[in-house]
């Protein structure tokens, strides 16, 4: 039981930070950053929703939102948006389900098997959240790297060259955290399913046997004429 509690709390801790990293990654503006900022007087970052320029001297930042969500955007941008939003929703739901499944939370306190299944369901959600998260962030990073390498290979200089930034790294870290917490909850918690089921069955059998024994003992202590009178009274009452 102690190991089960420990795994629940570790999985909850990792799931909380993983979901937070994915959400921060999705809604921050530094998926791409200018690669050579030594000659620049400003740092340029591009996110999934807007582009920001920060002056290196006074720290003033100005951001420009992209025209519209329905505007003509690159396939890389649209698919990364969709995958990261999906990862955010699944990781958030997985964390909420995990909180409900914790033994310290007073939700279905007399249904240990149901709470264990809730933990398993949250683990599956976290695993599913890690898949689009890692796919979107790694694909975006690889695409930025390939684009920059191809320009350098062909000696093409377009003014500003980008590399992937810290928002992309946060997406990768959050996705890996979802995989880790989901694995803990699905693989390790599955080992406790048979143990919990056996304990519940044993407790039910013991309670049933104890109830039957008490009934026999009670009837044994009653005189026969009292037992017969009680039965007749019960029949008259029903009539």
UniProtKB/TrEMBL annotation:
Pfam families named in the record: PMP22_Claudin (PF00822)
Compartments reported by the entry: Cell junction, Tight junction; Cell membrane
Record's keyword terms, sorted: Cell junction, Cell membrane, Ion transport, Magnesium, Membrane, Tight junction, Transmembrane, Transmembrane helix, Transport
GO molecular function terms attached to this record: structural molecule activity
Origin superkingdom: Eukaryota
Catalytic activity: K(+)(in) = K(+)(out); Na(+)(in) = Na(+)(out); Ca(2+)(in) = Ca(2+)(out); Cs(+)(in) = Cs(+)(out)
Example GO biological process: monoatomic ion transport
GO CC terms of this entry: bicellular tight junction; plasma membrane
TM spans (from-to): 7-27, 120-142, 169-192
Membrane topology recorded in Swiss-Prot or TrEMBL: Multi-pass membrane protein
Family: Belongs to the claudin family.
Task of the protein: Forms paracellular channels: coassembles with CLDN19 into tight junction strands with cation-selective channels through the strands, conveying epithelial permeability in a process known as paracellular tight junction permeability. Involved in the maintenance of ion gradients along the nephron. In the thick ascending limb (TAL) of Henle's loop, facilitates sodium paracellular permeability from the interstitial compartment to the lumen, contributing to the lumen-positive transepithelial potential that drives paracellular magnesium and calcium reabsorption. Claudins function as major constituents of the tight junction complexes that regulate the permeability of epithelia.
PANTHER family assigned: CLAUDIN
Protein name: Claudin
Gene name as annotated: Cldn16_0
